[in-house]
Amino acid sequence: MLRHRYCSRLLISSVTGRLSLGMVPVALILAAQADGHSLATASLLAALYGIAPALGLPLLGRLADLRGLPLPCHLGAALVATALGTLALAGTSHLAFAAVCVTLAGAGCPPTEGGLRSLWHAVLPDAAHVRTAYTLDSSTQQIVYVAGPALAIATATWLSPAAALCLAAAATLGGSLVFATARPARTWRAVPRLRGRRGVVRTPAMRPLLISLVFLGATVGALDVAGIALAERQDASWLAGALPAAFSAAGLLGGVLSVRFQPAADPGPRHLMLLGAGFAVCWLPLLLPIPAPALLALAMLPGVLFVPLLTVASLTVTSLAPAGTSTEAIGWMSSAMRLGLAGGTALAGPFGGHFAIPLLAALGCALLLGARPAPAPAPVLM
Prior knowledge:
Blueprint: H1 7-34, H2 39-67, H3 70-90, H4 95-107, H5 112-123, H6 127-158, H7 161-180, H8 183-187, H9 206-233, H10 239-260, H11 269-281, H12 292-320, H13 326-348, H14 356-371
Helix pairs in contact: 1-2, 1-5, 1-6, 1-7, 2-3, 2-4, 2-13, 3-4, 3-7, 5-6, 5-13, 6-7, 6-10, 6-12, 9-10, 9-12, 9-13, 9-14, 10-12, 11-12, 11-14, 12-13
């Protein structure tokens, strides 16, 4: 798939532009602590950044569908770079000002994810290649949330937290610029919206699907807290990073396997429901009182199904979106995932990081996917 013209450039630049999503929360916590704030206050700033893209991505996605990709990508990247640069210079001493900068930096995240998924249909020859591209795109999101925090910590350690914020701003600016100036991104236009058609969220089959993605994101947010709590209970600090890393590594493996054994036809509602049910069942063994190494292995079970489930959900969201709303639809999907991520983290803390929280979230996701099956995906008009 990557041998096709523009594909490598679009994928790499899109991932680079999204690196800040993994870098900024860690850099914010380190910067706030360096300025004398408590961990609780620093975490609130990071949570604010995590929620802000849920507000901006659908709006910038709609602008992309109406006016093309360059304008919202350039506008969003400029806003992110300005906000993070200002925050790096001014620091977080004044919390109200810092909160405004953090909100603007999060809300301005360029719609490179939604734009990329809209462009796959324009640069690839058939549906099989598009499914492979969606799987690869979903898999590379794991890189953002593994490499991003590591890069932020390394930069903050060697230089300063402010330098980490500047690097995140540069990654967003550079990645978005390379993405938006590619010829397919400059020439792509969504099909005209039909007057009187319902918006993305008002499409009946879309609502339960987006809510299920909130629950799906909550499993990941709760898992991060579970790793920290498990590390404290078993006096093994390495578990805090190893547990999410095992889940993410399994996600990459699941993406590879799903491409290798993907069906000839487009996945339908039944495929989505089966993946959701399997994902929920895979969390059950994590409730067993077993040693840490075994828990790491068991955490890979839901991880293997995470990327295939996310991929099929992405394809379904795109297929259900009304004509001319594909980028906005992916923006709503990203918003749902990020809201779930923040909610899972918030809920898991008071319950001591128990694995019952990601299990319940996975069950909620599976029930919503199975309660009212979405209609079979229709041909996508980009």
